Amino acid sequence: GFAPASRISAIGVSEILAIGARAQAMKREGKPVIILGAGEPDFDTPDHVKQAASDAMQRGETKYTALDGTPALKAAIRDKFQRENGLSYELDEITVATGAKQVLFNAMMATLNPGDEVIIPTPYWTSYSDIVEIAEGRPVLIACDAEAGFRLTAEQLEQAITPKTRWVMLNSPSNPSGAAYSAEHYRPLLDVLLRHPHVWLLVDDMYEHIVYDGFDFVTPAALEPRLKDRTLTVNGVSKAYAMTGWRIGYAGGPKALIKAMAVVQSQSTSCPSSVSQAAAVAALSGPQGFIAERRDSFKARRDLVVAALNEIDGIDCRVPEGAFYTFASCAGMIGRITPSGERIASDRDFTNYLLREALVAVVPGSAFGLSPYFRISYATSQAELQEALSRIAAACAKLG
Ligand code: PLP
């Protein structure tokens, strides 16, 4: 019979994908299920970006490219880091991969020895711990609940660091919580890291442009230049430019790390897609105005969802600073009884109930390492959100 390698045997199938599959199956049975699960903007890739890809194809840019990014894309990324983040990276301090997900994968494969520890605040984007496990490292999960603003504190970080700690992974704004770290939030954490020179910092700035209420986005390598030579600043075009399917992510970091990551990439994908890289050049170098328009649209949806959730007795939703997710507490639902007599014992029971009773698919906090919460992705139309929220409210009202 078949037995998987031990390095993947501990990793389950993504719960988010499993919920999506179940919701799709219900849809095929004719049930009007609303899926608020996907972490994907509902906007289209901008036309000038598509045009750049098409032009690249016509020019014959359809072959293997340089291993970890074309010179043109690396230059566009260098300019982006300088322009938007005040960060100076040389071209050999920049890597491009098939999505930020592969950037993370390359980084962990290139640096972790078996048993090396990676500190990950929860709730976290599920791939963080799974990628660490595939690379045979040990995720060290630290609970950061709504009262803490879903942010890691300096005390928690200090306590979690051991001689085996290789990395700390921070994600601001966060998937799934939408919480973001301001300069004031980052400062004490960076001070701790300054005292522990063996610990490296991976920051995932994927949702940098999706921030609200004038939130001032900052990235640690710019905030604390003394940490820049052990920080990997990860970003990508998937969310800001609605380019999830193009699969381009990138990072800036110390040259030796970038070189080691290229070794991993050279024996997995060889290079990112040539046409997608040309598209990413256009995205990063072209007009940026539509990002603010889309952000305003996301903000209106955030406000709608947060207000509707907080109207429901038993649900408590913190106002997220960014991304397109709410991560609401359903602690008040635990112990309640469904109309068919079942007891809601966990956030998973609650989200299963919402799928059955309200025909709305959301993801339980357990999928992100923190309970009892549930995540809504509000990257969908206001009309659909309104319908989903009124169905959720009606289903919650039926719980005894
Ligand atoms: N980082 C975070 C926090 C994300 O939510 C995602 C996608 O969901 C990614 C990274 C990966 O993005 P991609 O691989 O599409 O660049």
TrEMBL record:
Keywords associated with the record: Aminotransferase, Pyridoxal phosphate, Transferase
GO biological process, one term: amino acid metabolic process
Span of domain Aminotransferase class I/classII large: 32-392
UniProt-listed Enzyme Commission number(s): 2.6.1.-
One annotated GO molecular function: pyridoxal phosphate binding
Record CDD domains: AAT_like
Reactions performed catalytically: L-aspartate + 2-oxoglutarate = oxaloacetate + L-glutamate
Necessary cofactors: pyridoxal 5'-phosphate
PROSITE patterns reported for this sequence: AA_TRANSFER_CLASS_1 (PS00105)
Subunit architecture: Homodimer.
UniProt cross-references to PANTHER family, sorted A to Z: ASPARTATE AMINOTRANSFERASE
Entry similarity comment: Belongs to the class-I pyridoxal-phosphate-dependent aminotransferase family.
Record protein name field: Aminotransferase
Organism name: Pseudaminobacter soli
